[in-house]
Predict the structure.
Amino acid sequence: MKELSLHILDIIQNSVNAGASIIEIEIEEEEKEDIFRFSVKDNGCGMSADFLRKVKDPFTTTRTTRKTGLGIPLLEAAAVQCGGRLDIVSEPGKGTAVTAVFQNSHIDRAPLGDMAQTMVTVISGSPEIDFLYTHIKNGQSFVFQTEDLRRVLQGVPLDTPEIIGWIEEAVREGLAEIQVK
Ligand SMILES: Nc1ncnc2c1ncn2[C@@H]1O[C@H](COP(=O)(O)OP(=O)(O)O)[C@@H](O)[C@H]1O
Ligand SMILES: [Mg+2]
């Protein structure tokens, strides 16, 4: 995939499909340690130990529309190619945490891509889910929480066009402030 944000979108979509009500996204870029890491944590249905063992196999999926699930195997391949790895911790009925680590400066590491667009896509698709997005770059952080916004909006749905436009701007500006390009 051309951009890591597309992998992140796919992993978030898995959490949505797992029936999560809270999804936490954390991205950390540390140039000194040469690490690029992201994780997606959810409180969805989780996976059994047996299923989790098979999930990195491209022929495992619970979706019926397409035979092969490729999201996780593709992300793992991308991470491993960049001197990193993919970790999945999951518990049935509790939730799942997927963490991908890349060597930041690796020649094959795809650029992050547009996280403001990614957040807008997932929030418009599931405005009832609470998303928490933390981005840390070289020790500086930006946090975006739908929970805070919901409190201020007093019942106005997050997928209202004006709100979506505002979210996109807020994420774009917040990331620019910590020098995320
Ligand atoms: N966060 C998650 N919670 C519960 N199950 C998950 C989660 N992520 C992935 N899975 C399971 O792993 C399977 C494979 O995921 P993936 O590789 O992204 O392929 P796909 O989404 O196309 O099925 C999913 O079909 C689902 O059964
Ligand atoms: Mg998927």
